[in-house]
Amino acid sequence: MNRYVLKITGKRIDTFIFFLVKLKISFKKIKKTKDYIIIEVTEDDYLKIEKIKTTYKIEIIKRKGLIYFTHFLKTRKLFIVCVIMGYLFLTLLTHLIFDINVIETDEELKETILQDLEEYGLKKYGFKVTYEKKEQIEKRILEKEKDLLEWLEIEEKGVSYEVKLIKRIKDNIKKETEPRHIVASKKGIITRIVAEKGEIVTKKNAYVNKGDILISGLIKNKDNIVSKTRAIGEVYAEIWYKVSLSLPINYHEEKKTGNSKEVLEIDFLNNNYSLTDYNSYSHYVEDEKIIWYHPLLPLSLNFTKKEEIELTNIDYSKNYKKNIKPLAIEKLKNKLGSDINILSEKVLKKEQIADKINIDIFFKVEENITSYKSLKDFNIEEENKKVKEES
What we know:
26% of the residues lie in helices and 46% in strands. The chain has helices spanning 13-22, 43-51, 66-75, 77-94, 107-119, 131-144, 320-336, 380-390; strands spanning 3-9, 28-32, 36-42, 57-64, 99-102, 149-157, 160-167, 180-184, 188-197, 199-200, 207-208, 213-216, 218-221, 224-228, 232-248, 250-268, 271-274, 284-293, 299-315, 340-353, 356-368, 370-374.
């Protein structure tokens, strides 16, 4: 409810109070002296008081409720308009791209990337794009220029973008024709053999050691070696690994999503009221800058940058498949590469010590064990002669 605090000044102040009572005007007396009285009334009663023909001086010293903000806005229209226009102008400036810097000495490639960026909506004096849109642009350029680029990243830096890239090195070397064996890079049990050229000298489910010949590059006619060839193919085997992890029982992480925005806020009595944030983040960190404050009232106007964060809370003592198994697989792939097929896993040991969990996991993995052994210096005649002598 809107209320007014009034100061009525004049002689014989009790006479004015009598008028108020006579007109059935309710009021709350705050202070009374010989020459003046301070009262609090509702908005309707204040309008009645204004109509009283009197020589008493009636002065509004305070407004309460919505009328306070209405009066504040009316008396500071120019300032508020300037702040809003300034904010809109600042927002416009902070969302414009003033420069795109492609870090590359090859001018032709640099020009190609700038043209691609413009084609997909990223150009000088244009508007910035969202984090998701930026990721899409990176992916589309890499797909389009797959013969030119190995890697590309677009990084926002203030009012500009910096583009980093790695050129794809074209392999102009003729395909090698040197004869070779395909051998095992490590020991394991053979699961698959894919041979294009050469003689398969092992079989599925056979146990092999590191260095054993799997696909031979020697061409035989009965017991005689007649020629050498370049063995081509891939061999896969079941390999065994143990992965050890040491994890905290309870894990907490705050991770920035890459989404951010600038909002205009009013701070009144340590409470923030947003003027431009219509879709608030659930979790965020903020950097607040005061652009105006009232010297007497607890009131300020703030320009705040908000960065969205994702909260992660994990209890590693629970749900092995969801929480622990993915970490063990990730550690295994970091060691072996992503081109593996996990056949099975088994927890060997799990113990809790203080606030940590120590766990050992045994993995059976199907892995490419293809390696090569050169036959460049292999002498066919000497080898055939040796075989005859042994026989």
